[in-house]
Each structure stands twice: as C-alpha cells, then as structure tokens.
Amino acid sequence: MNTSALLRSNGLTASYGHVEALKPTDVMVGPGEFVAILGPNGAGKSTLLRAIMRLIASSGELYFEERSIAREPAHALAALGITLVPENRGIFGPMTVRENLDLGAYIRPPSARPEIEGDFEAVLALFPRLKERLAQMAGSLSGGEQQMLAIGRALMVHPRLLLLDEPSLGLAPRLAAEIFNALGQLNKRGLTILVVEQKAPLALALANRAYVMRTGKVIATPDPKDITSPDALAHLYLGEIH
Amino acid sequence: MYDLSTLLQFLIGGLSVGCIYGLVGIGYSVLYNSSGIINFAQGGFVMLGGMLTYIFYSLVGVPLVLAMLAAIALVSCLGLAIEWVVIRRLRQRNASVHIMILATLACQILIENATLHFVDDKPHSIPYFTPGPPLQFLGVAVGLQILWIIGISLLLVFLLGLLYSRTKFGRAMRACAINPEVARILGIKVERMVAAGFILSAALGALGGILITPTQYTAFHIGIPFAVSGFIAAIIGGLGNPLGAFIGGIGLGVLQAVGVVFIDAGYKNVVAFSVLLLLLFLRPQGLFKSLVE
What we know:
- The complex is a heterodimer.
- Chain A is built from nine helices and ten strands.
- Chain A has helices spanning 45-52, 77-80, 97-104, 113-126, 128-132, 143-156, 173-188, 200-204, 230-238; strands at residues 7-16, 19-29, 34-38, 58-64, 67-68, 82-85, 161-165, 192-196, 209-214, 217-220.
- In chain A, helix 3 (97-104) runs parallel beside helix 6.
- By secondary structure, chain B is mainly alpha-helical.
- Chain B has one domain: ABC transporter involved in vitamin B12 uptake, BtuC (Orthogonal Bundle), CATH 1.10.3470.
- In chain B, 74% of the residues lie in helices and 2% in strands.
- Chain B has eleven helices and two strands.
- Chain B has helices spanning 4-35, 42-60, 64-92, 97-118, 144-166, 168-178, 180-185, 190-212, 223-237, 242-262, 268-282, and strands at residues 135-137, 140-142.
- Chain B has a two-stranded antiparallel ribbon.
- In chain B, strand 1 and strand 2 (140-142) form a beta hairpin.
- The longest helix of chain B is centred in the N-terminal third of the chain and has 32 residues, at 4-35.
- Chain B starts with a helix and ends in an 11-residue tail after the last helix.
- The model of chain B has no long low-confidence stretch (mean pLDDT 90).
- Chain A binds chain B through residues 53, 55, 73-79, 83-84, 86, 90, 92-95, 99, 102-104, 106-107, 153, 157, and chain B through 168, 171-172, 174-175, 178-179, 181-182, 184-190, 289-293.
C-alpha cells in the first residue's frame, strides 16, 4: 500500500447500463502532483473522473488520504476537498460570474468568510478577465472565459485535489495555453491536479506522471519526460497493449 | 355597451383572479427552478388550501388564521410526500422529466378523487379575511379580499425575488435546476433542494387557494382549471421566472375579463387563449427571461 497517496483507486470499475466503460483501474495521485490521463476518444478517461467523483455507479476501492470514499455520495466529496471541472465547463449560464463563484464556496461555513474572500481575490488575480465581468451573465462569456470561470468556481471550493476533464476542449490554442499556464501556477502553489486531456503536449509539459488509457483501461504509465515527440505519443496511443 | 365604472369593475375582477393564476404560476416556477419538473398537482394544492382551511375552520372550529396556517402546513407536507414517494423513486430509476410530469398529473387526479371520497362534492367557502363593505374608487367597488390577494401576491413575488437573487439557498436551488450534476460536485444536496422546491411550491399553491376561496368557493374539481391557468401564466411569463409568472397570471386574468366585456362571458377563454397562441408564435420563450435557462 502506498501510504503517501492523496487519491488511490484499486480495481475501480464503472458501467453505463451493461457497457463496462471502465475496466478495473488502479490509479494513484500523490500530494502536490500534476497527473495527466491521456488517450483517444472513448478510452474511458472521463468515466474514470466521473467514477472518482461518484457521479456514476462504480465498484472497486477508492481512497482519499487512505479514507475509503467508494460509498460516499457525490455531494460529500467537496467537503473532503475534491472537486471536478467537468467537460464542457458546466457553468451556470443564467447566473452572473459572481454568483457562479459564490456557489463554488457553497459548502464553506460563514465562519470561513475571510478565507473565502481570500480565495475570491486569488481567483481574480489568476484570471483578471473575470474581474471585469463579475456582473455579466456567465452564459454570455466566451469559451475561454467560461473555462476560467469553471476553474475559478472549482477553486472557490478550496480543494486539495482538483480534477479537470478536457479543460482545453473547444478553445483556441492560445487560450488553451493560457488555461494550462494557470494550472501550472496552481500546481506550483501546492494544489494537486489530475487532468484528462486530449491535447497531450499541453498536459505532458506540466505532468509529473501520466496514465495512458485505451478501451476502458490503463495501458501505459510513461514518464512524461520520455514522450518528447508526436511519434512517441502516437506509439503510446496506438501501439501494442502491454 | 358598458360604462367606464363597469369596465373597471370587470378589470378589477380579472386582476384578482389573475393574481391567483400568477400565484399558481409562481408555484410552477419555484419547483422548476429547483428541479426542472412541471408539477401538475399544483392545482390540487390550490384546491386543498381552501378545502382544508374550510375543514379546520368550519368543521373543527379552529380560528381562521390557525386554520389557514394548518392548511398550508399540511399541503406543504403533501408536497414533500409527493417528492419522497413519487419523484425521488422515479429519479432513482432514471425516469425522464416527462415521466415525472405525468406522475404529477396522476397525483393531481388522486388528490381530486380522495377529496371527493373523503370530503364531498359540494362547494365550500371560508369567510373574508377582513369583514366589511367594499371600498369605492371612481364608482368601482373593490372588495377587501381583492386587496389581500393583490397585496400578499406582490409581497410573495418580492420575497421570492430576494430568495433567488440574494440568498445562498435560493441560488443553490437554481443551480440544481440548471445543472444538477455540477451542483452535486459543488457539494449541494440536490435531492434536498428538490424537496424544498416541492414544499415551497405546495405552500404557495395552498396560499393561493386560501386567498381565492372567500371570493368564490372551493370544491374537489377546481384544481385542474387553476393548474391549467397557472401553467399558462408561468409559460407566458417565462417558465422559471416568478415575477414573469405573476405578470403572466395577471395578463391572463385581465384578458379573460376583456373577453367578457367586449364579446361575451362564454368567449372569455377564446380571447385569452387566442392571445396566448399569438404570444407563443411571437415569443415562445415567454415575456421574461427564465432564471434557470
């Protein structure tokens, strides 16, 4: 047993109806790490994040700081310090940017007001564009701004483990780079990050470790430093299953 | 043709019944704002509000105010029971929203038939909140109950506006309707918010029923007409916007009054629904912006 793990799964599986979208999977994320999950479409990457977040029926073992969370309801995870920036951002469009950010701090008690204010200022410092748009309806933001808001709202939970599902999806390369630059800053400040990303180079540039998934299971755990070329990546995606 | 004071008299009548449509419409919006569900048992809550107040006041002998509070409390419990027994089970079975809406219609019919069976089929009423002759404005008689209806409705619209825009609880409710999965990720107990939506919408329906009963009557079968009119009010106003539903209700009530004045009482719904159809063609999303879409 790896006692230093912040998050650890043993034989985690998940199904949609009769389709087993996630075959028994072992992943580990250590404190302060930046871990990337890579793989082609339909590899089970998002399913893994949804299973960790208890958003779909799953079986197998799942531990956060060695405490079993395999039976916790999804809403209990935020209080433990785990949150997810979902695919397609999941911002509350008919609410203002400010209201979205406030909802991020929903579970935090009124006594945490000074800390909440501190996190709010930190989010605005990380994404200054949100500061100008606090009173704007979130649905009217551009794609990049919506992603910044989704990450900002997740930071308002004050997580210790931040999961992100395809944060670069639908973003222009410059904006995707900006988002990953922010994630790098957050990781440097000590936030543990587990990110699912199709644009592998973005994630690998920051990752300490990586898992490559295909057909619902982890097929490789390469050292990000070894994946220096598109060919190496293609080999991982398409090569023999080891 | 009618003189001005008679016209105004009809309009005041339309305004008061429109407020009740509005309150029923608000009930729809409140629930929609926490769950995305349309609850057709809303009309049953309206009927039961008046009926239970009548039972507590006239049959049991409880003072009127206490009878009203007891009726609101009981109807709220019924709303919670529907959420627990019907909606939560259906959600656990991954039923679509359409199935849940159909289930609420079944609940409406159950409420109606249970009332027929356990109470009776006769119309019943309760006293005016404030006894006394109507006030006279420009030759128009305005009953005191109408002032109660308008005043309480406006107060509720104001309070709901505060709930949704200023409170953490109200915003969390809206978040559950907009994206329940993300609401869960943020630690919001979605099932609890849906239950709160049912309680609040049931209480609003019951209050509407209590307010309108002194000016007309209540009987086991009045629920569906109110449910339909309230639903129209909510659609006109933009489903999920309480203020919009209230204004939609008033619009519908006044249009019905206009139909009575300018054509014939039998045509009141023809006028009202023609305007509704026109509005739906021109502005299918309703007059006001939904708080959750």
